[in-house]
UniProtKB/TrEMBL annotation:
Family: Belongs to the ALAD family.
Binding partners and assembly: Homooctamer.
Protein name from the UniProt record: Delta-aminolevulinic acid dehydratase
The UniProt record lists the keyword Lyase: yes
Catalysed reactions, as listed in the record: 2 5-aminolevulinate = porphobilinogen + 2 H2O + H(+)
Length: 333
């Protein structure tokens, strides 16, 4: 319209690049691929159970887990992370079961590695599935989580997982100094290629509740919280200090958790350190999306792929997500 811009015209029309599908494809800056996905799975010694607050997620028996792995491998997902649901009578104050070389997690690792040796197996190093009080460490009489005594058992848990064949050990406990202790123990035992992905910037979030139902630690924890070890959700510099320390202590990959409410942290971690950076799209994020999807308020495929894509845009190399199998399917279409 000549009268709109008398005598001149906008030199840049960004809409030109958006006008056609081919141009939009050519100018995409980031891309989500199946290679970015890590699938969290729950394994139980008891009966298979659907997790109420996480529609579509189950606690699997060992046999069920192997069926699930068949799908994961067929879809080309590179790795899974295992979370155990421990028999209530095996939970104790000191979480000794966590270091049992024949416990549920080592058994699951061996079973997966035997059938699917190429699949990356990552394990959660933390005591909350094993403690009678649901905390991630050993507590004193006031319920305070003791740092160094907790590390002793985390190290033994790490070795039990590595000996069973875990490829990545992933401490989610937030004790100070645990990466250094784990790395030293792995080196001494000859596990030189076992990767450590630290939950480096793990916030004391309210978005973990569905997970606590899934692993069966919610009732043990009761009204207690984890604020004496997980990072306060208001902080950024502190999260960066956590990442710096974990890298110095020998972490190979770092994680920010939760995911979407913390994209600013992801961006700062990636731009500051330039190391393999992962996000955990946690149970509460999954529950929120599923609730809206199941009500017909969001379209599942487009909403989930957009949210997962936001992690790539923020700087993530990969994402732990309960949507991994769905996303892999959609990405293959
Ligand atoms: C605990 C652990 C938690 C998650 C992973 N490992 C919960 C917590 O810190 O209480 C949460 C994962 C999720 O919410 O999906 N070691």
């Amino acid at each position: 319209m000549p009268h709109t811009f008398p005598g001149h015209f906008p030199a840049t029309r960004l809409r030109r690049g958006r006008a056609t599908d081919f141009a939009r494809r050519l100018s995409r800056e980031t891309r989500l691929s199946v290679d970015d996905l890590i699938y969290p799975v729950f394994v139980t010694e008891g009966e298979p159970v659907n997790v109420t607050a996480m529609p579509g997620v189950q606690r699997h028996t060992l046999e069920g887990l192997l069926r699930e792995m068949t799908d994961v491998v067929a879809l080309g997902i590179p790795a899974v992370v295992l979370f155990p649901v421990i028999d209530p009578d095996k939970k104790t104050l000191d979480a000794e079961e966590a270091a049992n070389p024949d416990g549920l997690v080592p058994q699951a690792i061996r079973a997966i590695k035997q059938e699917f040796p190429q699949l990356g197996v990552m394990t959660d190093v933390a005591l909350d599935p094993y403690t009678s009080h649901g905390q991630d460490g050993v507590i004193d009489d006031n319920g305070y989580v003791l740092n160094d005594p907790t590390i002793d058992i985390l190290v033994r848990q790490t070795l039990a997982h590595a000996d069973a064949g875990a490829d990545i050990v992933s401490p989610s406990d937030m004790m100070d100094g645990r990466i250094q202790a784990m790395r030293a123990a792995l080196e001494e035992k000859g596990h030189v290629n076992t990767l450590i992905m630290s939950y480096a910037a793990k916030f004391a979030s309210s978005l973990y509740n569905p997970f606590r139902e899934a692993v069966g630690s919610a009732a043990n924890l009761g009204k207690a919280d984890k604020r004496t070890y997980q990072v306060d959700p208001t902080n950024t510099d502190e999260a960066l200090r956590e990442v710096a320390l974990d890298l110095k202590e020998g972490a190979d990959m770092v994680m920010v958790k939760p995911g979407m409410p913390y994209l600013d942290i992801i961006h700062r971690v990636k731009s500051t350190f330039g190391v393999p950076t992962f996000a955990y799209q946690v149970s509460g994020e999954y529950a929120m999306l599923k609730a809206a999807i199941d009500n017909g308020w969001l379209d599942e495929r487009s909403a989930v792929l957009e949210c997962l894509g936001s992690f790539k845009r923020a700087g993530c190399d990969g994402i732990l997500t309960y949507f991994a199998k769905d996303a892999a399917r959609w990405l293959a279409d």
